[in-house]
Amino acid sequence: MASKTCIRSLSFAALTEVLHTLGQPAFRARQLYAWIWQKGALSFAEMTDLPQSLRAVLEEKYSMEALQIDFEQISRDGTIKCRFVTFDGHLIEGVLIPADDRMTACVSSQVGCNLGCTFCATGFMKVKRNLTPWEIVDQVVLLNRAAMKHHGRHLSNIVFMGMGEPLLNYANVLAAIERITAEDGLHMSPKRITVSTAGLAKMIRKLADDQVKFNLALSLHAADDTKRSQLMPINDANSINDLVLALNYFYIKTGNRITFEYILFDGINESLTDAKNLVALCARVPARVNIIEYNPIQEADFQRSQEDQREQFIAYLEKNNIIAKVRRSRGKDIDAACGQLANRK
Ligand code: SF4
User: Fold this and answer.
1) Coil, helix or strand for 68?
2) Quick check: 2 pLDDT over 60?
3) Span 103-143, pLDDT tens digits
4) What percent of the chain has pLDDT over 90?
5) How many angstroms is it from 211 CA to the middle of ligand 1?
6) Which residue ranges have their beta carbon within 6 Å of ligand 1?
7) Which of 11, 277, 286, 344 is deepest in the core (most CB within 10 A)?
8) What's the topology of domain 68-334?
9) Residue 17 predicted with pLDDT over 70
10) Cα–ligand 1 centroid distance for 220 (angstroms)
11) Is-catalytic flag, 106?
């Protein structure tokens, strides 16, 4: 039996054509499109203002390929980790991080990741496939439902920092963001979306040329090439100098915010020299810095920086007028923190 086409892979024009062929009035295409992209329907059964007979025909001819929540864990700090199962049986994860001033969804862009950052649990799982635009949107829809259910608030922010390298799934990530931000989609502001990359200079330039409106974060973690290559093998082909040039190009073309993400590892990247290197780098790129607490994983033996070391590092940045925010780790007790996503219960 031929496999069905996913209804969400069709453009508005294609949907209009499908419904016309089925003898439906023109407004049905708008209704169907709104169910798919605005109301976040995950099945034809939810589309209650479409006639039952039409839903039955659509069900017979098309699939929805929707994500489903496979497993949900709630941390003591209110963070929620959702494990999702795709239509073809892959597992991915997304995290909802509540705070006083925001409700952030951290979403995945690929099943697994090939970049092999040495501190990251996902990096130990080879990539199986890219997520489709609608699988990325589904994560947002489902995490928004979890936000409403458990915290009574809607999502305010989205970060692409879950499983996978978003810029290696470029077209689908941009198509998902287009639907998330579109007026006839979820209508969220692109200023509330941050795409985080391990650092692919060529693709950062492509983002600039495509004039994207969302924010960009670089997982930096070391401001010299030798250390960064040890932590992130992708640095061998994308040196810090290459990244500086690409990020400045991005900033000039888009004016959008750039953030350096910097996880402090005990005895690795936390010395005064490391802090000086970071200050020197910040003089070359208009970026702010997020300092992130590390969460040890079973696959690697990195440890989190001691508190006094972390404070000295941050004090040095502040003395040199670098805006550095400390991101306390969230959801540690459920392996939902940065670098911990690996489909474990
Ligand atoms: S940190 Fe990101 S890019 Fe690196 S291995 Fe993990 S998921 Fe992949």
Assistant:
1) strand
2) no
3) 999 999 999 999 999 999 888 888 999 999 999 999 999 99
4) 86
5) 25
6) 113, 115-117, 120, 122-123, 163-165, 198, 219
7) 277
8) TIM Barrel (3.20.20)
9) yes
10) 12
11) no
- What does 228-253 look like in DSSP terms, one character per residue? HHHH-GGGGTS-HHHHHHHHHHHHHH
Distance from C-alpha of 239 to C-alpha of 225, rounded to nearest angstrom: 6
CA distance 44 to 52: 10
Q: What residue spans in the chain does CATH classification 1.10.150.530 cover?
A: 5-63
Domain with CATH 3.20.20.70 in the chain: 68-334
Sort strands 157-160 and 103-106 into parallel, antiparallel or unpaired.
Answer: parallel
> Using CA atoms, how far apart are residues 237 and 280, in angstroms rounded to an integer?
22
Q: Is 178 a catalytic residue?
A: no
DSSP per-residue codes, 256-310: --EEEEEEEBTTTS-SHHHHHHHHHHHTTS-EEEEEEE----TT----BPPHHHH
Q: Which of 95, 113, 169, 200 to mutate to test the pocket of ligand 1 (most atoms within 8 A of CB)?
A: 113
Cα(19)–Cα(34) distance, integer angstroms:
14
Please answer whether residues 70 and 83 qualify as being in contact, where contact means their C-beta atoms are separated by less than 8 angstroms: yes
> pLDDT tens digits for 213-237?
999 999 999 999 999 999 999 999 9
Give the pTM. Answer: 0.94
326 neighbors 311 (Cβ within 8 angstroms): no
How many other C-beta atoms can be found within 10 angstroms of the C-beta atom of residue 256? 18
Alpha carbons 203 and 10: distance in angstroms, whole number: 26
Whole-number Å distance, alpha carbon 132 to ligand 1 midpoint, is 18
Domain 5-63: CATH architecture, name and number where available: Orthogonal Bundle (1.10)
pLDDT interval class at 338 (50, 70, 90): low
CA 91, 95, 99: angle at the middle one, nearest 5? 175
In whole angstroms, give the CA distance from residue 234 to residue 115.
6
* Confidence class for position 80, pLDDT limits 50, 70, 90: very high
